[in-house]
Amino acid sequence: MGGLTGEKIISLETALQAGRQETRDLYRRYINPGLATMLGLLDFDKAFVRAEGMAVWDKDGKRYLDFLGGYGALNLGHNPPEVLAAVKEAMGRPNLLQASLNPLAAALAHNLAQVTPGDLERVFLATAGLKRWRAP
């Protein structure tokens, strides 16, 4: 088992510069060989370098419409300016301190209670959907 340093770790910069074949090989080895093969056969194992709204662009500048939208994770589209501005404003602040009350989490819970139908009184914030089944 390797450590967190050394030549075996791929840096962010290296990953972003990886070619199509290298990315496909890594997917086949570590993630999903079937998906890598299928996307290769469909010529859709491209490197997308830009995204805005519901469009993405490959490294050759060809524009594609993203009809999946991250299966709902991108319901506001790719890189919406309002979301990017909010993220930029929140960056650098402590946000995962469990021994404190987070004002952003409190505001989010309030806002969810305001826009959710019915009489929502409690919000349980979790890292994944499965956690909802374990909520008190």
TrEMBL record:
Q: Which InterPro entries match?
A: Aminotrans_3, Class-III_PLP-dep_AT, PyrdxlP-dep_Trfase, PyrdxlP-dep_Trfase_small
| Necessary cofactors | pyridoxal 5'-phosphate
Which keywords does UniProt give here?
Answer: Aminotransferase, Transferase
- What Pfam families does the database record attribute to this sequence? Aminotran_3
Q: Which residues form the signal peptide?
A: none
One GO molecular-function annotation for this sequence? identical protein binding
Q: Tell me what this protein is called.
A: Ornithine/acetylornithine aminotransferase
Question: Organism classification, top ranks?
Answer: Bacteria, Bacillati, Bacillota, Clostridia, Neomoorellales
